[in-house]
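Hi W., the adenosine-5'-diphosphate complex you wanted:
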Amino acid sequence: REDVGGVRVVMTAERKGPMIIAIGSGKGGVGKSTLTANLAIALARSGVKVGLVDADIYGPSQPVIFGSQGQKPDARDNKPVPIESKYGVPHLSMGHLVAPGKALAWRGPMAGSALGQLIEAHWSKDMEVLLVDLPPGTGDVQLTMIQKFKPAGAILVSTPQDLALIDAARAGQLFDTAGVEVIGLVENMSGYACPHCGEVSDPFGAGGVEAAAGKLDLPFLGRIPLDIAIRQGSDAGDPPAAGDSSMAEPFLRIAERLQA
Ligand code: ADP
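Structure:
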């Protein structure tokens, strides 16, 4: 373990393969997938060999964010080969393995084994970090993930809203009881700058996640503003962390804090 700018980064020297970092949230729609994709891109920009697994089996959104919808992974030795992206982040999603728009109605064990296939795919040997975009909440897939693949750490995302915070605390407990270190909390949709008049308002409150991190004695990793450009970039397969606009900065800063 090393202390880096107040953030403890767990190094897993004893584990073969990349260090797994799970990104979780208590509820859906708080920006977990957005953070995972942009954090991966920000890490890749600073030279980290990083891959991404979209474990949000029931609602995969990474193919849209990376603009890789409709691409089918090759198979080698019966394992899927991750899809390369122009952002330097090979990734794999359930969305690449099933027909687009098909709803999955699997029970826990099947969802868990699907997740296993994604994590144990043909990742290149020099892969250092694998970010895993978990489904929201504390269900079977999260449990399988934690028990079977022993992430080195978890990052929790929440909006500043009370309800989202309570749910995030519950998700934190799930990792805690399984002995997985919560690396820190990120506040998303934090402050909204009006594109017309520039006035900053707080549609979901402000500072709630930092305060919660303090109460839970967890590191606070940073905040990402609510910005229409983030939503537009994500929908267009043009994630903001890849560009040079100010929207890349919050993600680059969080990536910096995570690095040894
Ligand atoms: P989750 O993975 O938690 O369900 P998503 O990352 O899919 O959430 O985000 C939900 C929606 O909110 C998406 O349309 C996404 O583009 C949008 N979004 C996420 N974060 C922001 C933000 N900071 N500013 C604007 N839109 C955002």
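The chain is about 35% helix and 20% strand.

W.
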